[in-house]
Structure formats: C-alpha cells, structure tokens
Specification:
The chain is an alpha+beta fold. The protein contains ten helices and seven strands. Helix content is 51%, strand content 15%. β3 and β4 form a beta hairpin. α1 packs antiparallel against α2, α1 packs parallel to α6 and α8 packs across α9. The radius of gyration is 25 Å and the shape is elongated.
Length: 281
Amino acid sequence: MNKKSLKKSEAENSIQIHADFVRELLVPLSTFVEKLEDLEEMFAELAQILSMRQIFLYRVSPEWVVDTVCGYGSSSQYGEKRAIKNMNLYISWKTNKTSSIPLPSFWDNIVVPVGMDNLFFAAGDSRHSRDIARIENSLFELVASVIANALRSMKLIEQANTDKLTGLLNRNALDKYIYEWKNPFDRNLSDPFAVCMMDIDHFKRFNDAFGHHVWDKVLQHVGKLAKEYFWSNNRVYRFGGEETTFIIHERPDNILSYVDGFRQLLADTPLKFEWIDYQQA
C-alpha cells in the first residue's frame, strides 16, 4: 500500500471512529437541548470532531426566503446571502431530500431537511475525500433527526411552561424557577433583584357583566403590554386568574417608580370595545 492510500485509509478509519463516537453521544445529548444556544454548542462539537468549517440550521420559507436559526462558523462565509446561492440547499428545499452534490466552493457540502418547521441542516467544507464524506453524510442525516427530536422537546417544554391565553410564562415555570432555580427560557439573566405581583381591579364584576370572551381580551392586552415593558431584562408570569408576577433582574434607580411605570402604561393604554356600555361596570 503506497503512502497516499495508507493516509487515506487512516483518515477513513479516523472519521469512522469519530462518527461512531458521535452516534453514541447524539441521542442522549439531544435530551439536554432546551434552547437554541445548546444546539450551537452541539454544532461546535461536531464541527471540531469532523473538521467542518460551518454547520448551520436554516429556515426556508415557501417563497425561498432563507433565515439563519443558529449555527457554528462564520456567517459572512456561510450566512443567508451565501445560503441563497447554495445549490444543495435549494435542491433539498425543492425535493425535501438530502442533497450533497460537490460544489466548487466547498470540498464537501451537505444539506438535510429536518422534517419540521421548514428547517434544513447544512454543513460545509470538511476537506476530506468523497469516500469519507459519504460516512459524514450518513452521520449528518442522523444529526438532522436528533435536531428534530430536540426541537420537538423544546416545543413541549415551551408549551408546558407558557400560558396559552397571554403568552406569558405560567405558574409551572414560576414554581420551577423558585424551587429549582431553573427556567426553560433562561436568558442568562443576573440574580433577581425584586419580586412583584399585580392583579386587575374589579375582575369579578367585569367578568360577570361582560363574559369570559371579553375578559380574555383584557388579559391578553395586559400580557402584551407586560412583555413589552418588562420582558427584555426580566421574567413575567401569569400567576393565575388576573394575577401577574414579575421577577425583576435589572436594577433601576427606583424599583417602585419602575414598577409603577407599568401601572401608568396600563392607564395610558385603554382597551375599548365599541359594543360595551362601560357604565354597566
């Protein structure tokens, strides 16, 4: 066996060992994915093991609009603009099948449909031979299925911890945060600074007078304003009924003025229904 063949054989054995190792880890690893940042960490590990320069997850609309969901590598080299020109991404999008046609700009390029939410898993430039690339391609198809499972798990976590009516975090998420110091939507916030609770006046009288369908609109209105006012740096929970809990992480100069600012926002943003006689309430 000449040196070139020996080197190729050693590379194939090495990538096969890596692929087997990754296969063993992928499925249990997916159970720990609770947010997109966890997928990025998984992509980084895969890229290092398989010598891939870029690994990305794209969302492609039916109108061929490409958005990067998350990924590893330089977005300037393999971001939306380049993805739009990626023939394998286009073929996979059109056929809903794996595409790994060799392209001039990449030694190895593969795109695998994830099978949900118009998502496509793409990896490029491994600098390996096509024989080795075939091993990688079968592995990436497995990765795509793991991503799908992870995203389904994330959706279930989100559904279990989100109030369906208002879109705020729910009591279950609050209990997890208080008792387990864990939150499925943790955004690496600082330690809590204050906990506040709010309820809406005249709940029973208003609900009895106008019905649940109107009161639901009120709760949705309050939830929308609460997310706009607090959400970027804090957590907002629907505690139950008309009660809302705020866990404040940012440190305003005056916490009372900060929280009262939301009360004032509610007062300045009335929700009106043309068919309601407010004198009844």
